[in-house]
């Protein structure tokens, strides 16, 4: 949890300064870990009543949000609707009927949907961290990495591994936001 301290400090300082808190979770393909991180951080910020938080995700390349991520989040109680059915679908991910949904789709970290400056760039996989040590426009660059659940794809353990990775990432994001005063 020590690797989370810079993110906690970033959020706390932005909150005290009454500034928006934009966080962009970045991984190589923007298909698994970065989406879990984006969603759980947004849920945690709402749960702990931390205002003005907007979470984003991106990759060093664009692919698609992996179907098992959608299935896992749905099984864990989030309400997910596919709002575009393309090679790179867009999903509406709701954790509360009274808030705007998180939009889940794969994109490069510098896509116009994401913030251009003044955000924290959180590298969720070591490959993205080593490939892009400098993210243009980021006020802060922090590695908070997680093992890729992709290692379980097409195995009998896939559902279990995705469930565990989602909960691990969720616990980490809940810890971060629980520290904000």
Descriptive overview:
The protein has 181 residues and is an alpha/beta fold. Helix content is 35%, strand content 22%. The chain has five helices and seven strands. The protein has helices at 5-16, 33-47, 67-75, 126-131, 158-178; strands at residues 21-27, 53-59, 79-84, 90-94, 102-104, 119-123, 138-143. Strands 2-1-6-7 form a four-stranded parallel β-sheet. The chain has a three-stranded antiparallel β-sheet with strand order 3-4-5, with helices on one face. A hairpin with a 7-residue loop joins β4 and β5. The longest helix is centred in the C-terminal third of the chain and has 21 residues, at 158-178. It is globular and about 45 Å long.
Say how many strands there are.
7
The main β sheet shows up as:
4 strands, parallel
Main-sheet strand order equals: 2-1-6-7
> Helix and strand succession?
HEHEHEEEEHEH
Number of helices: 5
Strand content: 15-25%
Please state the CA-atom Rg, rounded to the nearest Å: 15 Å
Structural class: alpha/beta
Shape: globular
Low-confidence stretches: none
N- and C-termini, Cα separation: 17 Å
Helix content: 25-40%
Mean of pLDDT: 94
Briefly summarize what is shown.
By secondary structure, the chain is an alpha/beta fold.
Would you spell out the secondary-structure blueprint of this structure?
Layout: H1 5-16, E1 21-27, H2 33-47, E2 53-59, H3 67-75, E3 79-84, E4 90-94, E5 102-104, E6 119-123, H4 126-131, E7 138-143, H5 158-178
Parallel strand pairs: 1-2, 1-6, 6-7
Antiparallel strand pairs: 3-4, 4-5
Helix pairs in contact: 2-5, 3-5
